[in-house]
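STRUCTURE:
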């Protein structure tokens, strides 16, 4: 990844490609760096460092395909939105230029569905309107036309009397979310007018024919974006639906639709939990993801789903395992029977999960205290009844995770164990402090162990 600053060797003990300081990864700029290197390769640049950087960047960005919007940094997917200030749109271009059809098609369809979300964007929506049409165009004329048709009102109102497009901002934007007030955005808004010429790779040259979305795929994308508006994030649209319709939407191709349907479903009485549990065995993986998300949203009302969710933890699919763990954490105390399975999973290796995303999210599902992530770990408040021989190896493994916030979440364990009980993992704690996490350094201080006297000691 690329960040607000550089991974300077003198700040990383001489290590090349060490941790990013400060806020860490910044995907809005990182994806532009990623694109620049892909274009360099297409121009004939053959340098090992460039090839390696593209490979690593591909691995990072591809993780979000099928899961949601590429987020601010090295964070969880934005599974409740179709795009995040143009980053999915940019990813559609990056992956299409490399002939990576699965990722390109997903990010393109997500872009088309994001037409109602373009006004939103951290620091402002300039990048949203710059990259949005570029991403939609990867899906062909029909996709770009459908995408822009839904935004025609904004383009008409944004155009000045002399033909310029001054920066508008979005609904309710001010202060830190309105950073580009003096910008002239004419170039960004008229860029789509150059698409038919296809002169540049970013405006259509080299687009794969296999990337063109069918009429049905375009219709599905437009339907997925329906009902969203900046003020209540589409909640009213979904809450007005009946229970049966919401259950059906749990199988949508769109992570955002699944998330919004699950959230709305949790507000309904008499939700058919058994029907949702049965979806965990559906043929389509999207339906399994949606079912797990709905069960987590239902919290303790979904207690009967615990055995099926424990079975899902054994899936070969990394994301289903993670969604099942999140659901169990959402259910709360009634799901503590899943703890032994979660602890075993925490120490398992999976070649399909080289960055240890399973372990990252297990750290939250087991130990997160509560707060910004909107959840609480199953063991955050008590370790009663937990086998220490299973617990301590899991804690040691999670303290090695790439993500500083995951390491920090584990710190709640220290509050429930004596120093003697912690002794076997003191080397792992020391190493987590001595070798900072390569990502999320700003969140990593929770892995520190403070040894002030307490009644238990």
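SEQUENCE:
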């Amino acid at each position: 990844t690329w960040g607000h600053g550089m991974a300077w060797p003198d700040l990383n003990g001489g290590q090349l490609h060490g941790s990013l300081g400060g806020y860490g990864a910044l995907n809005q700029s990182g994806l532009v760096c990623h694109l620049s290197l892909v274009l360099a390769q297409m121009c004939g640049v053959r340098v090992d460092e460039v090839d390696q950087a593209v490979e690593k960047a591909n691995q990072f960005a591809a993780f979000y395909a099928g899961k949601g919007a590429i987020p601010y940094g090295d964070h969880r997917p934005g599974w409740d939105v179709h795009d995040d200030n143009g980053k999915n749109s940019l990813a559609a271009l990056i992956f299409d230029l490399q002939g990576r059809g699965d990722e390109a098609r997903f990010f393109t369809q997500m872009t088309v569905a994001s037409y109602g979300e373009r006004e939103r964007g951290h620091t402002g929506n300039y990048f949203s309107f710059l990259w949005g049409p570029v991403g939609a165009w990867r899906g062909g004329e029909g996709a770009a036309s459908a995408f822009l048709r839904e935004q025609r009102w904004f383009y008409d109102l944004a155009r000045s009397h002399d033909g310029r497009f001054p920066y508008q901002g979005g609904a309710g934007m001010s202060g830190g979310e309105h950073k580009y007030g003096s910008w002239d955005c004419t170039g960004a808004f008229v860029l789509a007018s150059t698409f038919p010429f296809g002169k540049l790779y970013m405006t259509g040259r080299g687009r794969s024919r296999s990337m063109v979305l069918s009429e049905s795929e375009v219709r599905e994308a437009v339907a997925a974006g329906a009902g969203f508006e900046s003020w209540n994030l589409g909640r009213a649209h979904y809450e007005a639906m009946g229970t049966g319709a919401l259950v059906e939407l749990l199988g949508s191709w769109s992570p955002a639709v699944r998330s919004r349907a699950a959230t709305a479903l949790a507000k309904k009485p008499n939700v058919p939990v058994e029907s949702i549990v049965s979806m965990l065995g559906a043929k389509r993986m999207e339906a399994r993801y949606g079912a797990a998300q709905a069960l987590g949203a239902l919290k303790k009302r979904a207690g009967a789903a615990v055995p099926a969710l424990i079975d899902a933890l054994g899936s070969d699919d990394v994301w289903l395992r993670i969604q099942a763990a999140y659901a169990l954490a959402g259910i709360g105390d009634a799901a503590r029977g899943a703890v032994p399975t979660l602890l075993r999973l925490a120490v398992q290796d999976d070649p399909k999960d080289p960055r240890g995303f399973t372990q990252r999210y297990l750290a939250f599902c087991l130990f997160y205290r509560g707060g910004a992530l909107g959840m609480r770990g199953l063991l955050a408040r008590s370790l009663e009844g937990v086998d220490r021989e299973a617990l301590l190896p899991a804690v040691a493994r999670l303290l090695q995770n790439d993500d500083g916030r995951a390491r920090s979440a584990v710190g709640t364990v220290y509050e429930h164990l004596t120093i003697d009980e912690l002794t076997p993992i003191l080397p792992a704690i020391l190493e987590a402090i001595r070798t900072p996490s390569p990502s999320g350094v700003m969140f990593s201080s929770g892995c520190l162990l403070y040894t002030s006297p307490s009644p238990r000691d």
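REMARK: Residues 372 and 405 are 11 Å apart (CA to CA).
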